[in-house]
Amino acid sequence: MSLLSLTTRWPLMLSALFWAVSFCPQSIHAATIMDTDSNLEMAVSVLDWIHNAEGGYFNPKQALQKTENSTQSPVGVFAVEDIEEGEVLMTVPWELIIKSHDKNEEGQMCCGTVAAVLKEMKLGEKSKYHPYPAYLKSQPDNDLPSNWSEKAKDLLYEIVGVPQGNDPRTSDFDSIPPEEPIEWLELDFNQKCHGSRRDNMARHAALLVVQRSDDYIMVPGYDFYNHRNGKYHNTEIRWEHESPHVTKASRAIQKGEQIFNSYNFCAECEGRRSHYGAAEILRDYGFVEEYPQRWYYNNLGGTIQFDIDEDEETGEVKIVDWPTRFIPKDEYLRYARVWVRRQLRRQRRIQNLNFHRTKWPKIPEREWQIIWDFHKGNTLALELAREFLDKQYEQVKLESQGGALQCSSPGDAACATNVTAALTYEEGDHHYDLLKYEPDDLDYISPTCDNGEVMMFHDYTHLESLQTNYQPVGFEYNEEMDDVCMDIDNIVQICSCYRPQYHEFVTHYAARFIDTVKRVLFVGGGDSMLLFEALKYPTLEKVVGLELDQTITRKSFKYFQTQPHFDDERVEWWFGDATKSMLLLPEEYWGSFDLVLVDLSETVMSLSVTKELDVFDALALLLNKDGVIVKNELYLEHFSDVFDYTVQILYDSPIICSQVVALGSNKVDFLHDDAKDHEIPNLLYTPLTKDDNRFDLMHDYRKNDARAIGKCDTITPPIDTSKQDTSAGILEIVNAEEVSIAFDDKAKIVKLLQDVATEQGFTVGPSKAYSGNLVVAVLKEGYIAARLWPEHNYIGFDINLWGKTFEIKSLKKALTKAVESSLVSAYKIVVGGMFGSSTWKEDQVKIGPYSKTVTNMNRNCKERETSPDVAPIPKRAIEIALNQTFTLLDSAYDTVTVGVVCGLEGSDCMSFDIADSNPLVTTVFKFQTCDSLESEEKMFQCEKALAEQWQDFVNESNKPFDMLMVDSSAPYEMLQIFNSILDADEVRESVLNTVNVVLAFTAEPKEEKFRKFFLDRYRIQHGDDPVARAVFELTHAGEDVVEIGLVYCGNTLYVYSLEAVEHNIKERLTDVKVELTTINAGLFPYDFDFEPVNFEQKDYDNAPGLKQYAEQHPLGRQNVFQLEANRPDVELKFDGLFKMLKTAIQTAGFDASAGKFEKTQKVGDGGLIVYSSQVANVVLVWDGRTHVDLNFFTFEEGRGEKVNGSVPEKFITGFLRASEKSLKINLRDDQPRGTGRVINFSSDLAPEEEAATS
Fold this sequence. Notes:
The chain is 28% helix and 25% strand. The protein is built from 29 helices and 47 strands. The two termini are 51 Å apart. It comes from Cylindrotheca closterium.
């Protein structure tokens, strides 16, 4: 149901009128009429008509009276007697209601209703609804902005913000609600209803329907009730098709109270409870509502929504409700704060410079006043939002530092206190930016093409959906495109059609900066596609993969044929929580990898590995001194905090439109270092190693100063061996095939396990053979389990170590050598450990990121050499550097026009002299600093004068500026003024050419940061690529720095051009160090004709994967359940765990008495229990605290699905129930055991002809 559109519009001439209605049994008449206005008489006649109709009723306890200071109508309905809750106020019979012929028609302008109203208005007194059509016809036709004067529309659009361009990401970025503020006639009436622009009565009828209809019906009399929310709203309505329309009192109404309806908070107004407020009421009803008001803003990457109200005693207006779901979180909070500030400055700029009555003389007074009220309301709402968001930011900051919760809702007392926010804001009513730090809030996340239809996957066949132990996963296939896609959490992760665009570029773009690729680590690449790329390097010695979810790896092998290569000695998989996995990586891994490839979500990246390190910090420590780390998505800022050199690349990709990848290194300078062609065969990626292509993908670049940002301290804390705070272990799954030794005698295998463990330095405990095929050797440091299949020449080893985990590789190698296996597949699962382990102190210094003392990843922390005897950077050097910046425009224009912002008249202006003497420059225009900028009014006057000078010059010369130079003599206030001028899109686009440069320089970059922020703002103002914010540093005698900053717009080859400028300056300045330290580009270009390169699944070499898929022979199913205490007060006991295990075995359908239990304690603070039978076996490990691992194996795999009927589910359900819910599953791994390099369960091994990609 659309929402009510009902209000009364009384002519302004009646503002002094007071009148009331009294009632007789059969009539309604004006008891006191101080004016004989026919309009009012018609209103009375409408009520009389309703009251006298069969079934009609108008309650005599109410009357029409004059309203005081109402913004919507001078007349309203008031209670003349007390009215009880639920009392009927008015009943309008169905026969009296004008309606559309189509009861299913939706929208606020129902075309059928418009036609019906128009028909009755034309009939006049002959209408069966008379006098209502006559009353409607008498109402003004210009109440709504859609039919205001043209000048009023222009001013309203200036306040709302006219959408800029066609890019759907930015067209509304600097606009505020309402959307389509004046479009009811142009879009709905003309296009939807096929109305005529020349039929004024029809247009009038259409706007009346917008204002007064309730869905598809026009209810006479009901539209006499005005609108107001909050405590003032005191009505409710009930109606159904072909039934009377009834208005009742929703609460007791006292005599003298006005009776109000609500246009967005009525009982049937659910669709307007959000994203509808004061702005939409102006658009749809033509007035600015009285307090309370709802405001929402949705063009800032999300939506904020809040209600404001006025204190009746103090007159203070404040936020009274801000629903939690509309409070921005995380990065969005930063962006929301910036966006609100920008809108406040824009509104105040309009107020200070444009909102003058003399500038808009042709706007009727009523329209002018409504626009002014709307502008004031928006400005106040934005100001209140700014204060609230600043306090939210402070709250988040305090919480992150362990502080107390400061406020949770606008009404809290703590929220009313003053707090210091990281972002500053201007005091007073001026609109000038303080030119201090603000986060970059451009919407880089939105798609860069129209991929909405593609993302629906309409032409794809659904292959499989499943809930893994961690996430929902789905696979789809398009036969025509031969395209397989995988989604996680209903978000597409990868498709065959763009595998090269992601995995080839992520791997090989980074590898081109590595001389010899030997060691690679990837995180999150469970689909094995990064592994596929890494294995292309013939020099590769080790590749390590960290992945949480085994199911992703196994299902990707099934549908993409991407082999995990468990059988390759160079490949090492660690399945489990990455934060735990990294704590177990051995000492020699840290600082050893050439490439670290990261494919993790932002949430995971923010998790802690240690108290000092999050996931990203820890991953950075894995790189060797020459290594490169790569992260998908927007990570330039994060990388810039951790690495000396960072770069961000951008390129097209099917389905997702574009791909962004960030790279970081402490040795590789991505802008200046040569790249190497490794001659790796690829489907798409070509080596970018030549002068004419090496920067083709580069979007952003940074050279970062580690010392300046405080990143040069040693981060390794002393290792505390006085107590054991944590415990973790490794379970290595080893499938030893083609075993040559005889192993029918299980006792010999027991002896073999003991001997191998002893030779490798482990301490052997009780070991034995069990019923079924299980053999277990218990160690002080863990255990080794072997499941024997002599008939298949196969042994399935489980090597579970909680001590000396750094020796697990040598132990695995020794075991497989001892059984003479010629085909070994292996991978690791990170599991629980053992408190009180005999080796835990030794382990602390052998594993994890603190096994080595690392000083923030080999960053360049050398002190700058300084010399007091060396003179400052000479003026000549600055002149040479500035002159080279004009070459950025050399190829764009035959003539170059430059504007220069100088200091006060009579002061030196180096920039003007340089521009005036440069042969490339044909015209120079000087902006002199205005006198006396100490007051806001003086700044307003200066801004108007400068803007007029600039526009006049451009109009007269017919030549916009190609460059705007801000001289070092120009003061802070002038940069504020020019920032304001450039902030208006239409002005900026008219006075600057398409290819343009805005430049500012300073010899005091630390003291004059406002120049830097002025340029940062201009990059944001320009927004869309191609645009590049660049910084050139000239250094001399260490600390002596001249910073030349610029924003370069309109050239897609900006990286090549900027690097060329740097090169040219260096050639001319041999005694000054010159560095291009920053290239920060804009919003990724939107591609309206997106036609990417697509690939098919058959383009990849599927043969090896299909061969392995067909050779698999699962022999059983293994489940590893990791349980944690469900409550802080849980205390586990060894005997209690034994009882839980027995219960779980019985619940799984096994006879516990038919198997054998073996309990082993004193392997630390915990213990180990082994159960074995002919059909299943379990190894339980308790860490002595609150963690339990259950290594469950059954030959009865069935289909192995996670349903109540499957054996594993029965087993774990029984165990948890027996624990009386004191334990919960924290992590879980499911894997098949068998031969043929088994990866998939039996349920996955469909006949080959059924495979989608066979």
